[in-house]
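haha ok so turns out i had the wrong file open the whole time. this is the CORRECT one, sorry everyone. sequence first:
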Amino acid sequence: MIASLKGKLLYYDNQYAIVECSGVGFKFSASLNTLAKLGNVGSDAFVHTYMSVREDAIDLYGFA
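then structure:
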C-alpha cells in the first residue's frame, strides 16, 4: 500500500499530478483543491494517498 508521497513535483493538470520519489514518478488523481495546494512544478510536494486495487485497475488518489 502506498500511504503518502514526498518528492519533486514533475507535472500536474486539472485531473492528476506526477511526483518523483527516489527516481520513480508516481501518477495520482486528485481534486482541484489538492492540485492547487501542490505548488509549482519543480518544487517539493507531499500528499497523502489512497491506492485502490480492483480486478481491472490499480488507481492512486492523492489528498492534501
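The helical segments are 32-36.
again sry for the mixup
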